[in-house]
């Protein structure tokens, strides 16, 4: 067997009578010791490369990143005003996740560009007013004036079947009467795909579908087939599919059979606010903010905390969010012996999110699968040094974050400890992530979305 050589040395010339080297003894860490940043970050091993190639790699790469397509190029504003029938689900002020935020911000910027949006939802509001946006909904005295419930509890029955409420909503969407001024139909995720496909087909309008995540991601490979069928209906019927990351695009090609040329990548964005000001921090806070679901990898966050706390005992690890994993995570924190240094806050308000982001020293998003990760982008715009898993979409748009394999608990612990132990590193990274986040604006995402619309519409007639 050929011996391995350090990546920094030049491999020797092969020799037929080479003497076999005595193996070096392995030095194992003491039992219970954590792997922390007392040594340089581990790098991927490389096979048979020359010294020149290694030097080039050393100058250009800091850590390995997932391959991804280049982001879409900026496009110009449409030369005519469009009217979009947008089939959504939730809308502020009542939202349960990133889907509602995305729809609100996109509608807001589309109307600022001069376009009109008719937003279709099963709920009757109240809605945050956006000039240029008209709301349509079936309406019901039972649901009027109440916030939308959790998506899955509302649309799925106890056995995972599609509920009558979701089927009725899609039937209502399919029967909508739309005027000749509506240019196209745009549906978000799987809730309204059946109705959106039917109304677009009946009125002979182009159909665009934005996929924010897939059932394969949300279920970690054990999909609910009722949801999966509706996703398949949408991506098959759509003339263009928008995915929020290159990773998600690849999944649509491989698992759903969507032609690559039919998909456009338009990333999410975040809106800066003057309220996100850094606050004084007597003790460091490491923050996770999001749903407590299996795909989010919060157990990795807790296991990394157990490795960091012996070296940074004054740190507090905060878990903000709610979800089905809450009881298991609470038990895990007690089992790891860190229950006194971990705070589970449950669901937090928008004002509380602002306070947490202004107070945090480090933000961690350790998702097993993360189609994008708006919460990480919110942390970045607040100037919080951010660590994400390599499978997250946000890792595709910036090199200012630490990107770690979702399973590598030791690496998460090392990165967290580095940022807590070295204030100068934290300061430099804070400026870098904020600048990267500010370059990702909803205005640009709206222009890119309009560019997708224009691919499906006839070009305006040339003027005199």
List the helices and strands and how they pair.
Blueprint: H1 51-60, E1 83-87, H2 98-112, E2 116-120, E3 133-136, H3 151-155, H4 164-174, E4 184-188, H5 193-202, E5 207-211, H6 215-218, H7 225-237, E6 240-243, H8 246-256, E7 263-265, E8 285-289, H9 298-308, E9 316-320, H10 326-335, E10 342-346, H11 350-359, E11 362-365, H12 374-381, E12 386-389, E13 402-404, H13 409-421, H14 423-438, H15 442-456
Helix pairs in contact: 2-15, 4-5, 5-7, 9-13, 12-14
Characterise this structure:
With 464 residues, the protein is an alpha/beta fold. It folds into 2 domains: 83-269 and 442-456, Rossmann fold (3-Layer(aba) Sandwich), CATH 3.40.50; 285-438, Glycogen Phosphorylase B (Rossmann fold, 3-Layer(aba) Sandwich). The chain contains 15 helices and 13 strands. The chain has helices at residues 51-60, 98-112, 151-155, 164-174, 193-202, 215-218, 225-237, 246-256, 298-308, 326-335, 350-359, 374-381, 409-421, 423-438, 442-456, and strands at 83-87, 116-120, 133-136, 184-188, 207-211, 240-243, 263-265, 285-289, 316-320, 342-346, 362-365, 386-389, 402-404. A 7-stranded parallel beta sheet has the order 3-2-1-4-5-6-7, sandwiched between helices. Helix 5 links the parallel strand 4 and strand 5 (207-211). Helix 4 (164-174) runs parallel beside helix 5 (193-202). The N and C termini lie far apart (77 Å). Residues 1-12, 25-35, 37-51, 56-77, 140-153 and 275-279 have low confidence and may be disordered.
